[in-house]
Amino acid sequence: MRYKSVERMKPIGKHSLLGASGEISDFQEILLYLNELILYDSMWDDGNSLGPKEVHNYLTRVMYNRRNKFNPLWNSLILGGVKNGNKYLGTVSMIGVNFKDNHVATGFGNHLAQPQAREKMQFNSLYRSFHGTISKNSIAKITEEGVTIHQPYSLKTYWEFSTFENPAQGAIGSW
């Protein structure tokens, strides 16, 4: 949230896109690890390249390894991609907890948005529920041909609702 102009999505190899929340410097370190991995893989010159499943497994091991050294990378990661017609979307937490699903989220959205998404709520309502910190958004598209990251854009917001002025009005009890 502090660095509003920093991109938190980066293409990884030919088939994957990585998105991160959390510490920027740790995300940069993860990108260094991944650049080294992609470079090592391309040096084989065998015509094959790492897909999103392999990159996700690698990130899981990196995050879990750093956790065990009591020096975690303070990021939650989302990795998506397409290779050979197979779509992939997975997430890894800062302690190495990971899963693959049709929809994923990081941070507090993982706790609140995931159950709603499983009940097939509209994305628009999920998005607006958790978008109170910054008004810039980025959208990326992943296809067999490659990854496209579009320029950040802002949504119009309206903060003049009376509920925003006194959110506890009408609440029974207090904290």
From TrEMBL:
The keyword Methyltransferase does not apply. Keywords: Proteasome. One of its GO terms (biological process) is proteolysis involved in protein catabolic process. It comes from the Eukaryota. One of its GO terms (cellular component) is proteasome core complex. InterPro entries: Ntn_hydrolases_N, Proteasome_alpha, Proteasome_sua/b. Pfam families: Proteasome. This is Proteasome subunit beta type-4. It comes from Gossypium mustelinum (Cotton).
